[in-house]
Design goal:
Elements: E1 2-7, H1 11-20, E2 22-25, E3 28-31, H2 35-48, E4 53-59, E5 66-71, E6 76-81, E7 84-89
Helix pairs in contact: 1-2
């Protein structure tokens, strides 16, 4: 299983993702592809995200059962803690809406 979530993505990137994946909700794409195709799709996201942000999660055979990568500016950032990948929140910047 592969899940990609994009925010503030240009329409061109959203259209490109819709070619490969099913858009369940605005900006939420799912599919089931090999690692090679998954990496190809992520390179498309990297090339087209512009000022937006994205996260991609996929199934793995480790203890967590999944892994993920992020791209762009977001308050949620991945951190490693004792070998487990978790999500940490950056403090809000003055003027940011919560």
């Amino acid at each position: 299983m592969l899940v990609i979530v994009v925010e503030n993505a240009p329409p061109r990137l959203r259209g490109r993702l819709a070619v490969w994946l099913l858009e369940l909700r605005a900006g939420v794409y799912v599919g089931d592809y090999s690692a090679k195709v998954r990496n190809f799709i992520w390179r498309q996201v990297e090339a087209g995200i512009e000022d937006g942000n994205a996260v991609m999660a996929w199934r793995t055979l480790d203890e967590a059962g999944f892994d993920f990568v992020t791209l762009g500016t977001n308050r949620r950032i991945p951190v490693e803690l004792d070998g487990a990948k978790l999500v940490s929140f950056l403090p809000p910047r003055p003027g940011d809406a919560l």
